[in-house]
Recover the amino acids of this structure.
């Protein structure tokens, strides 16, 4: 199983980036996918997630209205569209996958916790200049 996160880069404040999380070795539609980020000297924090059937999406308050998570099951890929970027969005962004189950709901309380996830990608750097 491999998750490959890519699409990061350097952008000016107010700009946009689209991150991709491409999966191999698993069917991404069977997994909830989360995006987390870690800035230098800080703990990894939840940014956004989409439940395993794609019926619900969740966002950290600081990114609501600016970030949009979506999935393309045909491409086995999940995206994070980031608009109106701010310098405080600068971080390494990671995607992670959590196996879906009819026995347990994938709500925000679960999808926002890094310890719940089964697989992690390697991270992609996002730098927003002021």
């Amino acid at each position: 199983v491999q998750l490959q996160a890519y699409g990061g880069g350097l952008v000016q404040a107010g700009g946009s980036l689209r991150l991709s999380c491409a999966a191999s070795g698993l069917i991404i539609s069977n997994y909830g996918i989360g995006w987390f980020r870690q800035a230098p000297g800080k703990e990894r924090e939840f940014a956004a997630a989409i439940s395993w059937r794609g019926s619900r999406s969740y966002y950290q308050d600081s990114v609501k209205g600016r970030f949009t998570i979506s999935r393309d099951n045909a491409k086995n890929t999940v995206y994070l569209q980031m608009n109106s970027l701010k310098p405080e969005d600068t971080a390494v962004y990671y995607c992670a996958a959590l196996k879906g189950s009819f026995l347990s709901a994938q709500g925000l309380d679960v999808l926002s916790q890094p310890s719940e996830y089964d697989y992690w990608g390697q991270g992609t750097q996002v730098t927003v200049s002021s």
User: Anything to note?
Assistant: The helical segments are 108-111. The CA atoms of residues 38 and 44 lie 4 Å apart. The longest helix spans residues 108-111. The first strand starts at residue 2 and ends at 6.
